[in-house]
Design a protein that fits this description.
This protein has about 375 residues and is of the alpha+beta class. The chain has helices spanning about 10, 35, 55-60, 115-120, 150, 180-195, 200-210, 235, 245-255, 340-350; strands at about 20-25, 40-45, 45-50, 75-80, 90-95, 105-110, 130-135, 140-145, 160-165, 170-175, 200, 260-270, 280, 285-295, 305-310, 320-325, 325-335.
Amino acid sequence: MSDRGVSDGDRARGSAGMARDDATVPASFTPWSWVEDLAVVHRTADRILRVRGKESRAWLNALLTIDLRSPAPGVARYALLLTPTGGIVSDLWVVDGAADAPEEIALVLPMALAEVVFNHLAKFHLNEEATVAFDDSIRVLTVVGPQAGDVVAGAPGTVAALSSDRLGTGGVDVWVASAEADAITERLCARARRSGGGGIVDAAWSAGRVALGVPLAGVDFDDGMSPHEAGLAGRAVSFSKGCYLGQERVARQQRQGGLRRRLVQFDIDGPENAPGGCAVRNLDGSEVGRVTSSVVGGGACTSLPALGYVNPTHAAPGVRVTLDERTARVRRVLGHDDAVAAKEASLRAGHPPQTGEGKKGIL
């Protein structure tokens, strides 16, 4: 990622690029503070896939997890593409075309999975009148935080401004011509700096999403996890639209529970992180899960957030675990659903999870 339009203070919050999903955060920087009060500008690595032609809306509605039967202009809608068995191929944002072009729909895809999504859609592309093609003439910027609308309002040079909510704090996705991306990024960052915000690089963005409990495709979930297991069913699944690819597993887990794992947010004691991929163990030392994302903190941090999976018996706030020999507790279960939780409660009946030292481990 280019750091044009990023202030010196913003550069100090992390290095560009994300070969792995660990983020560097100095001791003076609370990784979630910038989304609580400020507007920040982030240049995504997303890629746009355009779907055009007769019945393209019906075709996508049969493949994606949200209800696309009615257009929603001006909004980027969060959705999932699943395998036939209900695993998550990728998440994406659905953007409808103009009112006079209801069969033109754009999918905003994470760069790392864009070709995977394209190839997956091609397996089900039976409508010869619909075309699917990448549009690399557009770059996607996102402005998040409670002041995002003020930063974007009236900004010149944008192709589109779409209401979005990438981190659960509100925001606006801004589409710009690729050739103008540097200049428009700088202008938006300057607007954000007037109210104390600014631009952020990939590492700071990653720190914020981990602290806010927002999973990343390809890191925190893949085609081995279901929407319920990844905590995304309530955010990205319609339970009233009818059939779609992978629906059977999703509907069954909504009705019956039976999840093999749950994505949770951890609070790690102290300033040292637990690297992605390390084992989560109960207080008896038995492995009960894996860390997927973490934040690298500074010496002044008293705790650090991380994301990872645990088995259902340990998916409850307050459960004590160790992450690579670091003590931690489950802060919350992501995407907690009371109905599904009631189904899962039977797994813990008579076998309460650990909530402190001296309790027996449960597998």
